[in-house]
Amino acid sequence: MQPQATSLAALSAYFKNDYFPLTEKEEQALASRFTERSIKRRAFLLQQDEICQYASFVVRGCFKLYAVDQSGKEHILQFAVENEWVTDLASFYAQKPSGVYIEALEPALVLQIKHADLLDLFTHFHKFDRNFRILVERGYIALQNRILQSISANAEERYQNFLDQHPHLANRLPNTQIASYLGITPEFLSKIRKDRVTKV
Amino acid sequence: MQPQATSLAALSAYFKNDYFPLTEKEEQALASRFTERSIKRRAFLLQQDEICQYASFVVRGCFKLYAVDQSGKEHILQFAVENEWVTDLASFYAQKPSGVYIEALEPALVLQIKHADLLDLFTHFHKFDRNFRILVERGYIALQNRILQSISANAEERYQNFLDQHPHLANRLPNTQIASYLGITPEFLSKIRKDRVTKV
DNA sequence: CTGAAGGCTTAACCTAGTTTAAGACTATTT
DNA sequence: AAATAGTCTTAAACTAGGTTAAGCCTTCAG
Question: Residue B135's closest CA among A168, A116, A133, A143?
Fold first, then answer.
């Protein structure tokens, strides 16, 4: 669907606030290449074994990106809310089948761009190469911190850290989803929460 | 030190094989901005609380990038061998104190570029913006796989996976270092290795 | 040649986190 | 309004992996 002006404004503002701001020409280039899509709760942006066709910018709502292991358990790698991107980079850039799911946790609205159109944008507008380099750099740094956490902190410390770094998400998401993100069972998260209360 | 021709040739070949190959002009731009440095075994490229001044390309040797937790334990986030980069991106890009160490596991030779010189390279030669975007994308994908592993696989599976993905490293590194990378104790790795032998 | 320092293994004991199961509570659907 | 499906908690039994400690091998500096 043709994107609404308000959605595009959100994307422009995003670049303006956090990256090299776009010229009018560059904004027009966005407008002609992004499409808008509204997603129902529990609908999928991507399912395992599909090729990730779109990079998606979240205008409204909330998504989880997760993998399912042999025993059928979900493992959440990333949440994405307003003004964040949610894409399986491995599948998107190589255009090969994905190993993950991207699912809406709330009714959502996204702006999407196809892989070929993004490459086209990179080719014609130097600034996008640069802005996306920085964007991925920041993602890389965030991931590295997450690995460090998962290796060196116990469950309670990881939970505390999650609360510190994503206070808004802690209220917005059910504990089952947070537990999956932290790599523990909901039952054990429940115990941690209980122990914290009686401790403090 | 002024880089040797052979080191620069390794860096050029690296871009040629895996990225958009460089023109002669771009290669010259590298030559004037990279410096060569040889590192003794157990010497540090970076220590905690220092600012990561250089992005380092490994010409020869092997490094570990690790963090130390409150109880003094090392947690290895990354190994880097020939034709790989080793840099604390968080510290390097933000030019703020690092939370990690980078230490040589073998006598090593690296090519280094300062943050300002790299930005300069990005500004004057579009191709570096692009090549480094792709480089970080690939690093991002590798990290995401690692997180997935650490969340959803048990120690034995992680070890098997390490052997599959880094067969050369498995012979090159002591098991203590591999254990630290896998997030387990050397004793437990020893047990896994024993169980695998008797199992097969 | 010798001693010190790593590195690898084994084994007994310990603990963080899982599993299973059950009950209460809250949303969503019909 | 009832039915259904998800959510949160508690608790007992269990398991993956950690800790401590000891013994043996190799390497390398003096």
Answer: A133
| Helix/strand/coil percent split, chain B, to 5 | 55, 20, 25
State pLDDT tens for residues A147-163.
888 878 999 999 999 99
Residue B38: helix, strand or coil by DSSP?
strand
How many residues comprise chain B? 200
Asked if A77 lies within 8 A of B150 by C-beta distance, the reply is no
Instruction: Report how far residue B166's alpha carbon sits from residue B192's, in angstroms, rounded to the nearest whole number.
Output: 18
Residue-wise pLDDT tens digits, A55-86: 999 999 999 999 998 888 999 999 999 999 99
d(CA B55, CA B135): 13
Q: In CATH, what number does B5-152 get?
A: 2.60.120.10
Query: In this structure, which amino acid lies at residue B57?
Result: F
CATH of range A5-124; options 2.60.120.10, 3.40.50.80, 3.40.30.10, 3.40.640.10: 2.60.120.10
The number of residues making up chain A comes to 200
Q: Mutating which of B141, B145, B146 best tests the A interface, going by the most A Cβ atoms within 10 A?
A: B141
Sketch the domain layout of chain B as residue ranges: 5-152, 156-200
The answer to whether A136 contacts chain B (CB < 8 Å) is: yes
C-beta atoms of B144 and A67 within 8 A: no
A90 touching chain B per CB within 8 A? yes
Q: What's the gap in Å between the CA of A144 and the closest CA on chain B?
A: 7
Contact assessment for residue A173 and residue A143, using Cβ atoms and an 8 Å cutoff:
no
Taking the stretch 75-104 of protein chain B, residues with Cβ within 7 Å of any atom in nucleic acid chain D are none
Predicted pLDDT at A43: 94
Is A41 at the interface with chain B, CB within 8 A?
A: no
